[in-house]
Structures are given as C-alpha cells and as structure tokens.
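Course exercise 7: structure representation. Students receive a sequence record and must write out the corresponding structure in token form. The form below is the worked example handed out in class, using RidA family protein (134 residues). Read each field label carefully; the graders check that inputs and outputs are placed in the correct fields and that the protein name is recorded exactly as given.

STUDENT ID: A-19
EXERCISE PROTEIN: RidA family protein
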Amino acid sequence: MHEGVTLTSPADVNRVAGYEHVALAGGFAFVAGQVARDVDGNWVGGEDAGAQAAQIYRNIDRILAHIGARREEVVRISTLLVNREDAPAVTRERLAFFGDHRPPHTGMIVAGLGSAHVKVEVEITVYVGTPATA
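STUDENT ANSWER:
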C-alpha cells in the first residue's frame, strides 16, 4: 500500500476477492463499481435492472456510512448498463437515492459486465475532506 492511500471495505457489503471496495486518497474516496449482491453474495433483482440498482444503492449507502460520508458528498457517478432500455428504471433509483443532490453523472451502454447476472454497475467518487498532514 502506498503511503497516504487507505484501502477498506465495510463488513455489511459483500466481500470481493482481489480488491477492496474503497480507496481513500487525497481527500477523496474512490468506490469500486457496485453490483446487486447482498452481504452474503446472493444476486438481488433478477433480470430487473431497476431492482438491481436499488440493491446497488443500498450497498453504496453502507459504504458511505463506513467511510463517514453523506450522499451530498458524492461528487461523481458512473453507471454502466448492458441494455439501453433499462436506463429509465435505473435513473429513477439514482434520482430517488440522491434526492435534490445532482452530482455529475456519466452513463455508458456496454456489451457486458463481469457476470451474466449483472445488468447495471455503479461507481462513485466521494469528497471526504482535506487529508490530515503529519
């Protein structure tokens, strides 16, 4: 690990072999793309991308709590979809989650994601404040 970088994952989000969910560096938290798995690793939402997005935002909420951040401190969102037709349902979940907070958002349609189960993946960047100096 590089000095000034902290890698972490909350206990109530499914652990992933090979990486941590969050990298804290330079006053920002970079959150790995989240998919619709519950804490036990079960897929949530079936073929319904809106239901998958709802689980993704539950995971993001847990990650924000883990790093002591609020939704209003999210400064960037990227959403990857495998089906353009799912965009309205996924957008509804994003807007419901963030309320009046509207950080920059990039939406991408891709040929596929890490598993055939995954219809949507969301990653965020969060401003967590000025890093402490030694």
